Amino acid sequence: MASRKMILNVILILMVSSSEALRLLVFFPLYSKSHSILGQGMVSRLLEAGHEVVHITSFPRDKSEANLTEINLQSLGVKMKAEAEKLEQFKLKNLVGKGNFGDSLFFIYFTHEIHKQILDDPALVKLLSDPKEKFDAVILEWFFADEIAGIAPLFKCPLIWFGSTEAHWQVLKLVDEIPNPSFTVDLFSNSTPPLSFWERIRELYKVLKKSLIIGALITPFEKTIYNNVFNKIAAERGVTIPSYDEAVYNGSMLLLNSHPSIGTPFRLPQNAKYIAGYHIDTKVKPLPKEIENIMNEAKHGVIYFSMGSNLKSIDMSDYMQKSLLTMFSTLKQTVIWKFEGDLDNVPTNVHLLKWAPQPSILAHPNLKFFITHGGQLSTTEAVHFGVPVIGIPVAGDQHANMGSVTKKGFGILVNLAENMAINLQIAIKEMLENTSYTTKAKELSHIFHSRQQKPGDELVFWIEYVVNTRGAPHLRSPALSIPFYKKIYLDLLVLSMLLLYLLVLATRRFVCKRCRRASKSKKEKKN
Ligand SMILES: *[C@@H]1O[C@H](CO)[C@@H](O)[C@H](O)[C@H]1NC(C)=O
Ligand SMILES: *[C@@H]1O[C@H](CO)[C@@H](O)[C@H](O)[C@H]1NC(C)=O
Ligand SMILES: *[C@@H]1O[C@H](CO)[C@@H](O)[C@H](O)[C@H]1NC(C)=O
Question: Which residues contact 335 (CB under 8 A, 6 or more apart)?
């Protein structure tokens, strides 16, 4: 009887402790609309689950909310954006026919400069230095800067990484070994597995080259930032921080904003989870009346065109804008174009929107397809709503995303070019005449939604799980704890070569002895 009571008590305690509200630090500092959508989505799911959140963001909410504190980095973002906008190389018209800037040294420098300034922001430093601030876990958006890992040990709590893109070796390296480049591509690659001979060599070369650059240049630079920033803050909090390596490779979990229905089915370690789609509200917001009317009244359906929030259609060349408008004017369909400014001579079937409520547009039954730059959020939302796409990848992960889309058969790729209106028209015709893309998009959407848990619930579950299991050390990949040379058995190779050498040596000695003896006996015979 007593033991039964005890068991009941234990169960009760477990239930209470697992439903206890947590205090979480959510770090999504980038001044980029799409990244902020992912941060705000995470905050919403955590607040809905009853947790308390401190959100480091460049896009604060319009209204204050219960249990939410925001550290506003907007002015820093605006300042950095103004500097970036002076750089003509980031404008759409200057990206035509260019290599992927994600591969450039400049991009690597740029991401670190951003993070350095973020970690220097007075409001953030104040929060991190305050010994009264306590968190149950910190969730950090990883964007090519490992040094931010130092935030977690300040609070002596588990670190959860968040990867905003498809999985790739650079983010997986934080929680596991580097995946084999013969069947997994770099995030900025133009190739899609299965890879040809040359593609495999190129992917291997990319990993080797980047690893060398990271090891020789980037990591020392990151260590300097890490030590400069976190030693000072740790002293104010009265804690000591671990070494850079201990902090960076101590993530308890990696949440990935991707899903095999959209991208490559990576082989993940036990503590990496696919949660793409969590940012999309389960109940789609109604469209503004004006857009709703346009979409309802389009007799031949609607085509939605948006190059995302970072690449602006307004930065296209005049010729590109005009030729697209002329081409759109020949269509029977209504075109909704997310365009950040005004244009002259807009045809009657084209509607320009400075801001587009994308999920609500994608959810409308009268939508035919989506012309996109192929950003991760856009392809995810397209699959969520079962909408086929025409993709015009420009830079970053967009080429890899569109490679996956065309391979899976729910979209068509059009190359970015001054006169792309011609090829876009051909793709539009194909999309309208051939139903296979829509069929495929619906099929993949079904796969995307067929999960044990909704992605938003899954996100909350794993964050709570990490806290309740004190950092989930049992899920940690054993690959992290052995050095590279052991993983590829270099020690065995050395030992084998040594044995082989000794064997050769012994054989030679033996053979020589015998031949010496033989020649000796020959000589003796002669004599
Ligand atoms: C805020 O959190 C507390 C628990 O910490 C919870 O009881 C309350 O319902 C939350 N408020 C809202 C609006 O979610
Ligand atoms: C690594 O993470 C675990 C779980 O959060 C924590 O207990 C441990 O102190 C961390 N180690 C270091 C070196 O920060
Ligand atoms: C439709 O497109 C698919 C995928 O590109 C292709 O395999 C199929 O042959 C096309 N069907 C027609 C009727 O053109």
Answer: 302, 303, 304, 305, 328, 349, 350, 351
